[in-house]
Amino acid sequence: MPYQQKVWPDNGAREGRYILLAIALLIAFAFVAIPINQRASTDIVLKSYQVRADQLTTRQQTLVSQLKVSHEEIFDLHLELKDEGTMTVWPSILELKDLYLAPFTEDLNWQNLASISWNGLENGYYSGEMTTPELSLAQVLVNSQNEDSPVIWLHTDAQELPTNINDDLLLKQGWKQVVFVQTHRQAHSH
Questions:
Q1: Which of 5, 16, 121, 126 is deepest in the core (most CB within 10 A)?
Q2: For the segment 82-129, what is each residue's pLDDT rounded down to a tens digit?
Q3: Which domain range does residue 153 map to?
Q4: How far apart are CA 106 and CA 115, in angstroms?
């Protein structure tokens, strides 16, 4: 009897099984790894009197970002004045204008931001009243006492500020507090 050899057809079935096995392993790995790699939700629940800074109009965001940047300089000036032992421990509006701090300096930017009339109140509070309606706001109140970030309040109607400013009085008058929220893109910038 002649020698017989069985020859299997080369149709790729064996390689196909290896590829299917590799795909199954990848899916199993993804099933395990993806939940582990998820970031925690940073959604902040806002109170009724709060508004996110990124929900403001473009001009309002410009004003808020300028106040946030100028806050650093205001707080540094406060520390310097405090160390010098001067009577006023917070810089005046005139000092802020002399330092060309936006939005306090009366320049073209100031005109574009509703020509705000600024007043320096006691204890690191600054109030601004809009003289033109470009910002859809009537007043802004900035509390610079916090070292990390200013507390900014906005109001759509002109209000007489109480002599002893506190959050409860501002809430009763209908002020909105601006909340700074770090976006996903900002949190993961490299």
A1: 126
A2: 887 776 688 888 988 888 888 888 887 777 777 788 888 878 889 888
A3: 50-179
A4: 8
